[in-house]
Amino acid sequence: QVQLMESGGGSVQAGGSLRLSCAFSGYRYSAGCMGWFRQSPEKEREEVATIDYYGRTDYADSVKGRFTISRDNAKNLLYLQMNSLKSEDTAVYYCAANKYLVCIRGADNNWGQGTQVTVSS
Q1: What is the pLDDT, as a whole number, of residue 17?
Q2: How far from the centroid of its chain's Cα atoms is residue 75's Cα?
Q3: How much is the average pLDDT of 63-70?
Q4: Within 13 A of 105's CA, how many CA atoms are on the CB side?
Q5: If we measure between CA atoms, which residue out of 99, 94, 95, 97 comes closest to residue 110?
Q6: Is the Cα torsion angle 80, 84, 89, 91 positive or negative in sign?
Q7: What is the Cα–Cα distance from 111 to 49, expressed in whole angstroms?
Q8: Are 33 and 98 in contact (CB under 8 A)?
Q9: What local confidence, expressed as pLDDT, does residue 114 receive?
């Protein structure tokens, strides 16, 4: 059974940094495409960043240059380094993964339970 668990959320002032981690398990070899999503009460869930099995990344325009997604397949860990945080980054952040080696739209993801990130101005 695939399991994903996020950690590292918290409260920080604007301009600060946080690093989210996601431990995943249950894939026969390794997770394929992985990503971070976020949702706040005012907005629909949005894709923040993705990384495929080969390490190719993609970012939402709103986080480019500030956030970095990375993964360690040997340790079954996914990371999101968030720098220069803004109040609009406040949301619940979710880790997601699927079995496909490259990231494709509409893939059926497994999800973590989410971790709250709050940025105060």
Answers
A1: 98
A2: 16
A3: 98
A4: 0
A5: 97
A6: positive
A7: 14
A8: yes
A9: 97
